[in-house]
Amino acid sequence: MDTTKTIVDVKTALAHKYERKAAQTSSTPKRKQYAFKARKYRRQLAQMAHGTEK
């Protein structure tokens, strides 16, 4: 079973979730926290994509 696809799907979903939460909250600290988490998952996705290119 290819788990790479599953991991990519999960990380993409989490990035979307935290981007949505960052846009919806009115608290500045929470907005920054959610934006950081979304960037973290986007960065991990980019690293995974770069690692699979050969």
**What is the H/E string?**
HH
The number of distinct structural domains comes to 1
Shape: elongated
* Beta strand count: 0
Broad structural category? mainly alpha
Low-confidence stretches: none
Number of contiguous helices: 2
Sketch the major β-sheet: none
Distance from N terminus to C terminus (CA atoms, Å) equals 21 Å
The mean pLDDT is 91
What is the CA-based Rg, rounded?
A: 13 Å
Kindly state the percentage of residues in helix: over 70%
List keywords for this structure.
54 residues, mainly alpha, 2 helices, 87% helix, elongated
Give a structural overview.
The protein has 54 residues and is mainly alpha-helical. It has one domain. Helix content is 87%, strand content 0%. It contains 2 helices and no strands. It has helices spanning 3-24, 28-52. The protein is elongated.
Brief summary of the model shown:
The protein has 54 residues and is an all-alpha fold. The chain contains two helices and no strands. The relative contact order is 0.17.
Question: How is the topology of this model organized?
Answer:
Elements: H1 3-24, H2 28-52
